[in-house]
Amino acid sequence: MLEKTVVTVNSTGRQSASFVRVASAVGWRVRAQVRSREGLVADELAGLPNVEIVEGSLEEEGIVEYLFKDIQVAFINTTPWGDEVAMGCALADAAKRAGVEHYIYSSMPDHSSLPYPLFRMELQDDGSFVWQAPFHPDDPLPWLDAEHDVGPAVLQVSKSGPEAWVGQRITLAFERLTPRQLCARFSRGVSRPVVYRHGPIEISVSTPAGYREHLEVLEETLGRQRAPYFGPDLEYPKEARSIWEGYRGIEEYAREVFPVEESANGMTWMDEREEDPTATTLAETPVDTPGTRTPSGARTPSRHPEGDEYFLGSC
Fold this sequence. Notes:
Keywords: NADP. The structure is a single chain. The chain is of the alpha/beta class. It has helices at 14-25, 40-46, 63-67, 84-98, 146-160, 162-165, 179-190, 211-224, 238-243, 250-256, 258-264, 269-272, and strands at residues 5-8, 29-34, 51-55, 73-76, 102-105, 121-123, 129-133, 141-143, 175-177, 194-198, 287-288. The chain has two domains: 5-110, NAD(P)-binding Rossmann-like Domain (Rossmann fold); 121-144 and 172-265, UDP-galactose 4-epimerase, domain 1 (Alpha-Beta Complex). Strands 3-2-1-4-5 form a five-stranded parallel beta sheet, with helices on both faces. Helix 4 (84-98) links the parallel strand 4 and strand 5 (102-105).
């Protein structure tokens, strides 16, 4: 494989870190920007072969220009630190000035790592899980395990080169499931009942600038108006699966990854769980309506390695 030099920003986020890992594994040189070298993910990336860690804010003078020096491929996923739109424009302009051959931008926000996400499984007192979101129970949604699948997919796009993809949008989603279907598969994975509750997005902590408004727009357009997630002209998951066949589905994630993440967050349910024969045979998951009393059980997100106030812009 032809060796390339690539750059990523906000590299401890799930999307960027995923690409750093696979690019390093195939022998590409990686320049990875991080806000801080402290933390588990930053330590991991710094220990990978061919990876240069660039520490500092994208708003610092000189960092952006340096990032794109002698770079062939850029994978960019911005976060809500500061003015995200202005930073996105500055990165694109700097890449153009530097003559970057292939510029790949991910517009997917991270809704899975925050204390107020669109996708959060809440453990209940009876051992079951509840997912509350504003989506209609029967409207299909795109699903992607960013940490597992973004890196390999972006690698394949990078290998194809800009000639194959210039000006195109890629719908990177590997499953198309309604909330009912999602909960049924998640239930099989964790061997516990999983209930979908059709209700508003609950925000209980401070949010970065613009993010609350972003969630409100999603709640209105995808929830109340029931608009398709990607719009009528973008089909999925066929395109994503043609790029990367080794994706991890939601049931596999629930069975193999979710318990590990929960354990890291201090939860112990996975050590006490028993096989639930009904969980593996669910065709559909019950929908809980707003206002239904459900025993509470909070999942406390683990501290992000870059600080308590860090909000991921990549999954």
